[in-house]
Design a protein that fits this description.
3-stranded antiparallel sheet; 315 residues
Amino acid sequence: MAKLGQAEVYAPRSVQVWRAVLNWLAFFFQIFAQIVRGTPSITQVLSYIGLRHPLLSSSSPSFKPLPVVELPQLKSPSPEPEPEPEPAAEVHISDCKDGDDDRCIEKLTVVLDLDETLVCAYETSSLPAMVRNQATEAGLKWFELECISSDKECEGKPKVNYVTVFERPGLEEFLKQISEFADLVLFTAGLEGYARPLVDRIDLENRFSLRLYRPSTVSTEYREHVKDLSGLTKDLCRTVIVDNNPFSFLLQPLNGIPCIPFSAGQPYDEQLLEVLLPLLKHLSLQKDVRPVLHERFRMPEWFQKHGIPASGCTL
């Protein structure tokens, strides 16, 4: 009877223990499954909890940027009939200026955009700490900056904004190597009160021979803040512009190099050194960069697809 009573007392507790063990095993299995599926990124975590911070979204217009990298096309086992090609834009490339033949092989001029091309900047007070921490752990260079805003405070004094700036990987080496075979020009649609101190920080060696800000941009029938290269030179044979927003160079589409936008969520980006630098070195050897760029990017046709006729472009 004593043994029977003892069994009756301990039997329920052993069942509870087994249930607890099974629950723990199930819990660890769920964790293991999450690890196998992969850890979510910062952006995914924010979207999971219903928070999609505006700093994580690109400030560029809503269009699919053209990647500079040329990817090989995969062979399809059952090829579909190719759609009829759209009519190509009528493109006329003017000859280089007459005169000394060496004029067409003068030093290349490289015009560089700032935001989302060389750096990305966010208002410090609105930047999630996890974004900064993730970038720091990945080795991304960043710094904080005081910028004078065009807005005024109550007392009439200029308002000071605090921003956190992330440098695109390889930025310093990129500017160093480009300056060895090209003249560098900084052309941003940003205001000078914000852009000037920022460029002072990333261009300690004064490699930019010229800096242009928003007042130097023009408005067109199709877009505002367009960067007109004719203000720099009348001979566009040896001038290129690199910008994450193709509409910035819609007046000279044959001189544009569209690049993939950069954000703090891309700490392992390789566009500057692995993609743009080799292309610019190749262009530096060409008498006229425009045929090469047209063959590679077909920008007049791209603008035509977006409702901007070739007649609206200065070629």
